[in-house]
Structures are given as structure tokens and as C-alpha cells.
Amino acid sequence: MFILGDSYSSTGYDIAGPLPSDDNPLGNPPYPGLTAVNGPTWTSYFVVNYNASVIKAIDVASGGAVVDGDIIPPFSPTILSLRNQTEDYFIPHFTGSHRKMDWDPNTTLFAIWIGINDVIGTLHHPSGAKVLMNALAAYAGVVGELYTAGARNFLFFTVPPVDKSPLAEYYAGSESKINSLKHYANDGILSLARHLVALHSDAWIHIFDVHALWEKVFQDPCTFPETCKLKIFDGFCPLYEKGTSSPDEWKDGCKAPVDEFLWLDWLHPTTGIMNATARMLSEELRECPATV
């Protein structure tokens, strides 16, 4: 399994570090990895906790990633865009005769969760929807590169409800625009998947609607046992945003323990909703052959 995307998926994998193995399916760093959600992200839960068989995962996702930095600049030039992850990491290191690890196109899944930073990055652009359209076209191009390199099984994630994040609330009055851009991105991801199926009859595609799943949590956190502790959905405690020593820590100055907040910081959730995401994804993949 290869994982590409942004901080919602990143575990801090070092391309020069140990490769995944049966005993260490994430390779490096040690479980749960270096994440932005105060605990395991969906990647770690999915590979280690909810796998129906042994899954070995290479996670080249990069915090802050956009689809293509030439279209929507990331907040730092050191951030690897989806294009960078594909062209500078995956293709040189995991394709061709000198690849670091063998993989079978028939049994290897390529999971891509991208678009959050593209939506946020176009918020104040006067032609945000047009720029986002260009990013989605680049997304299709990158998927085409992966296909050419041998990828045949694709898992795409929708953009979650970032219009309900503290960052959206900070930009007062921008929630509706973020919501509109988010839906535009999700429509584009669906179109991308349909186009890929029409173009390549041997490609397997599944779209996981994480947006719908998270909306259920906003409406009723006890929809899933992993999120039933959540009580605060409209803000975060700054004392928690760098992480805590335990998943249920309660720091003086915060109105509740960290695991009762949906949001850890301006844009990242806490680990509980990632746990629910991973479990529901594993159940959906077992039940559904494809969704496009």
C-alpha cells in the first residue's frame, strides 16, 4: 500500500529508513508515527489495527501538501506536493529495476487524501474556483503518472468539512465560501474517478466519502464509539495544539480534556475521528468492490 497526501495522512516516513515488514508494517518511524492529530492518524489505525490481512504501507504524505505547488503555493517551499511525492519519491524509489521494495500492481493499493490545503489556499484568491479547477486537472495528471508507473488500484478520499474548522471560523464570513470550494473539490474528485474508469478498464477505483462520515459525527458524536467522547466542535485549546502526553490529558487553562475536542488546532482533528475513519474505511472496503 502506498499513501500520498497531506498531514491528515502523514506519519513522518523517512525514505532512507527501514522498509515495512510483516512485523513492522509501517516501516518507520515507530507506531503511531509523527502525526498532527495527537495520536495515530487513519493511516496507522488502518494498517495496524483494522487490516484483514498483513498490509505493508509506504506513507510519503507530507504535512501542508497541495496537489501542485506551481498552481497553489504551499505555506512553505519545503512541503512536498502530491506531484513531488509522486515524481520525487515514489517513482524514483519504488519503480524500475532499482526500486527499494517489490510490489504487485494487482495487490497494491494507492490511497490519496488531498485537497484540504488546496481549498484553504484558494480561499482569498479572486478566481479561487478556477485555480482549484486547475489543481484538480493536475490531480488527474498525477494519477495518470501513477497509472503509467504501474498503479491499478486507487482509493480517493473526499475533502472533509473544513468549513467547520476553527480556521474557517477565524476567517469570519468565509465559511460559506470554504463550503462551496470544498464541494467543488469533491465534485472534481468524483469526476476524476469516473474519467479514470472510462480511460482504463483495468483500473479499480474506490471513493471513500470521509465528508459524509464526519458530518455524521458533527450531528451525533456517538454515531461511532471512537468519537462518543467528543463534546466541543467549535474551537480548540491552544495548550493542546502541540500535542499532549496522553490522549485524555486535561491541562489547566483548557475547559475540557483533549479527547473531548474535535479539533486539536486550527485545522487538524484529534485522533478519535481518525480512528472512526479508519474502521469505517476498512469495513467499507470489505463490503464494496468499488464506488464511482
UniProtKB/TrEMBL annotation:
<dbReference type="Pfam" id="PF00657">
    <property type="entry name" value="Lipase_GDSL"/>
</dbReference>
<dbReference type="InterPro" id="IPR051058">
    <property type="entry name" value="GDSL_Est/Lipase"/>
</dbReference>
<dbReference type="GO" id="GO:0016788">
    <property type="term" value="F:hydrolase activity, acting on ester bonds"/>
</dbReference>
<keyword id="KW-0378">Hydrolase</keyword>
<protein>
    <submittedName>
        <fullName>Carbohydrate esterase family 16 protein</fullName>
    </submittedName>
</protein>
<dbReference type="InterPro" id="IPR001087">
    <property type="entry name" value="GDSL"/>
</dbReference>
<dbReference type="InterPro" id="IPR036514">
    <property type="entry name" value="SGNH_hydro_sf"/>
</dbReference>
